[in-house]
Recover the amino acids of this structure.
């Protein structure tokens, strides 16, 4: 995230040396032996702006070290999986931290639900019908959220991540009100648009902070951050954030963190959705190449269905731009929105063909592609083609794809 790193033009610019001359001396020695015995560790590929993923010093170090005379150097990159698919073609091996295995997820659910066989079976059946929610449970924290909401919602699960984290936020707000023994108001908290009057300003302040954090790619908020951005001091977090004392300065001061990264992104997208239509479009033009674009855009799409002209123009520019990563982000957003009319609009912009040839699709990508095509076939007259050749579609990914496609009874798909 450091601007110095993002603007680096040479390896010397990022070497942690005491002086520029020392950095040049070190690199001259490595270039002399063409990078032999040099190991570079790039921590946080997902924190780089997207435009640096395709053409930058870092891309050259990973994919084209010979252009820097470092032929024999080795590189280790860390990244969230959602932001690393553009590296798969140029890396020799990949290790993904899986969290819970399927067996461990089942064991966890069994323990949390107290061994109640009917409840466990009901949860398992619903997860089979909701593969996006099921796929998120490899993270222990997400599995805990799913179990909590399953019990709180009378043993029913949401379909999308937008619904999941909206219910989590509403649950936090209800708990906050319950602590004040306002049971009647608690029962009426069913929407983020309809909160008790005394919560509305506090909630707006938290959403504003979430928005600024997304725009600055920031996840922790010391008091200095609030002052710099002219934001009000967080006097009430409504249970959506937690404070932690920091002793990195002479005086102790609290820093605030959202309970979950997705909670911050959901609240930021809610804040953006309340801006005038013209400002919404400007925000996403600014956010377009930033690391948090994909996560915020999918939640924002669910809130708004991208119904304004300005946002539809952004959608058209994504489709016509030919960037397949951006197109996948759009497909994710349409799945979260569950809006067939939006899929129909995007299908019209694609000109009757979805071309994802040579794109490595994750299981969730496969799910969203299947949903999009099923919506197209149910709402579009005529032929629509989808090219998914060379997309690394194994049996597991195809299951996600076919489950969504099975909802479509049309035969208008041409398989290339």
């Amino acid at each position: 995230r450091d601007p110095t790193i993002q603007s680096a033009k040479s390896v010397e610019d990022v070497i942690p040396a005491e002086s520029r001359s020392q950095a040049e001396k070190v690199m001259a020695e490595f270039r002399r032996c063409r990078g032999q015995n040099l190991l570079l560790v790039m921590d946080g590929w997902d924190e780089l702006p997207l435009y640096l993923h395709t053409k930058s010093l870092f891309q050259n170090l990973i994919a084209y070290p010979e252009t820097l005379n470092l032929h024999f150097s080795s590189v280790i990159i860390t990244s969230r999986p959602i932001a690393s698919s553009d590296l798969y073609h140029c890396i020799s091996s990949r290790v993904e931290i899986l969290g819970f295995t399927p067996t461990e997820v089942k064991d966890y659910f069994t323990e949390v639900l107290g061994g109640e066989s009917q409840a466990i079976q009901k949860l398992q059946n619903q997860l089979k019908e909701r593969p996006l929610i099921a796929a998120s449970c490899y993270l222990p924290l997400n599995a805990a959220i799913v179990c909590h909401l399953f019990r709180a919602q009378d043993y029913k699960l949401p379909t999308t991540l937008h619904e999941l984290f909206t219910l989590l936020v509403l649950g936090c707000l209800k708990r906050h009100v319950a602590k004040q023994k306002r049971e009647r108001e608690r029962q009426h908290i069913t929407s983020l648009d309809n909160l008790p009057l005394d919560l509305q300003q506090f909630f707006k302040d938290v959403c504003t902070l979430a928005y600024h954090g997304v725009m600055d790619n920031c996840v922790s908020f010391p008091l200095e951050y609030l002052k710099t951005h002219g934001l009000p001091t967080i006097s009430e977090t409504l249970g959506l954030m937690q404070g932690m004392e920091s002793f990195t300065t002479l005086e102790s001061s609290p820093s605030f963190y959202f309970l979950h990264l997705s909670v911050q992104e959901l609240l930021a997208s809610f804040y953006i959705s309340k801006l005038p239509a013209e400002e919404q479009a400007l925000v996403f033009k600014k956010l377009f190449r930033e690391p948090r674009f994909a996560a915020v855009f999918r939640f924002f799409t669910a809130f708004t269905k991208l119904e304004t002209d300005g946002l539809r123009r952004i959608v058209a520019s994504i489709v016509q731009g030919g960037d397949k990563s951006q197109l996948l982000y759009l497909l994710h957003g349409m799945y979260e929105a569950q809006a067939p009319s939006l899929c129909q609009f995007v299908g019209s912009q694609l000109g009757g063909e979805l071309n994802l040839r040579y794109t490595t699709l994750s299981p969730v990508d496969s799910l969203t592609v299947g949903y999009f095509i099923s919506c197209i076939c149910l709402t579009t007259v005529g032929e629509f083609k989808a090219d998914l050749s060379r997309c690394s579609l194994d049996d597991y990914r195809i299951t996600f794809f076919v489950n969504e496609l099975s909802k479509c009874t049309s035969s208008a798909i041409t398989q290339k």
Summary: The longest strand covers residues 241-246. Residues 247-251, 410-416 have pLDDT under 50 and may be disordered.
